[in-house]
Write a structure and sequence with these properties.
By secondary structure, the protein is of the alpha/beta class. The chain has 2 domains: 2-127, Response regulator (Rossmann fold, 3-Layer(aba) Sandwich); 132-233, LytTr DNA-binding domain (OB fold (Dihydrolipoamide Acetyltransferase, E2P)). It has a 5-stranded parallel sheet, with helices on both faces. A 5-stranded antiparallel sheet has the order 10-9-8-12-11, sandwiched between helices. The chain contains 7 helices and 15 strands.
Length: 236
């Protein structure tokens, strides 16, 4: 697992680096005292885990601002804030931190947290290769989740939209929600969408929203009740 560490206090940075080196699942460590450099490192290296000190005296940005910036282009990374103050918790919800590390750092809990996140990154990697097996009548479809554009339900029948075609299933949207990863969002009682396939959303009648997708003519609907959750997921 690749880890990016943002900590402006040299002593703390050395201490955390040493802890990370002692954890076998950590294969690469990038470190900096600068918020600006942390953003650049995240863009270039795509770390799976980002550890951010919130209070940065030696940077123009604080850890929350850095996290918001990184989240805008990398929503897959796990973010863990390092802080001596719990007062930042509410402000940080918009960038969906996985956890907090409170100073002074408890070594056993730190190691446990890093290993826990490493296991989750392995699971997410496996999802890229998993196949969704869907049966309908006498046909069995093997569909890569990443190929799904959206799923809609009509008259108790689900239609799985992909660029290869539309596949039918008797599975409910609730069942698909349990099978799919965090790249998918239930945006309406009748629609689940692949967030990575969305090209544009626009407001239409009754404060609902229409979703357009890359390279696909058909559209999905999003309810006004799901719009705030969509914005949070997209870091808006």
């Amino acid at each position: 697992m690749k880890v990016l560490l943002l900590e402006d206090e040299e002593y703390n940075r050395d201490f955390i680096r040493q802890l990370l080196k002692e954890i076998p699942v950590v294969r690469e460590i990038m470190e900096t005292a600068s918020g600006e450099e942390a953003i650049a490192l995240a863009q270039e290296n795509r770390p799976e885990l980002i550890l951010l000190d919130i209070e940065l005296d030696k940077s123009d940005l604080n850890g929350l601002q850095v996290a918001r910036n990184i989240y805008s282009f990398n929503k897959e990374a796990y973010m863990v804030f390092i802080t001596a103050y719990s007062k930042y918790a509410i402000d940080s919800f918009e960038v969906h931190p996985y956890s907090y590390i409170l100073k002074p750092i408890k070594v056993a809990r730190f190691r446990e947290l890093i290993e826990e996140i490493a296991e989750k990154t392995k699971q997410n990697d496996r999802l890229d290769y998993d196949i969704l097996v869907v049966k309908h009548k006498n046909e069995i479809y093997h569909i890569k989740p990443g190929d799904i554009i959206f799923i809609e339900i009509q008259n108790n029948l689900s239609f799985i939209h992909t660029k290869e075609g539309i596949f039918e299933s008797y599975l409910s949207l609730a069942e698909f929600e349990m099978m799919l990863d965090r790249n998918f969002l239930r945006v309406h009682k009748s629609f689940i969408v692949n967030l990575k396939q969305i090209k544009q959303t626009r407001g239409i009648f009754d404060r609902s929203y229409e979703i357009e997708f890359y390279g696909y003519d058909q559209k999905a609907l999003m309810s006004r009740y799901k719009y705030p959750e969509y914005k949070r997921q997209m870091g808006l």
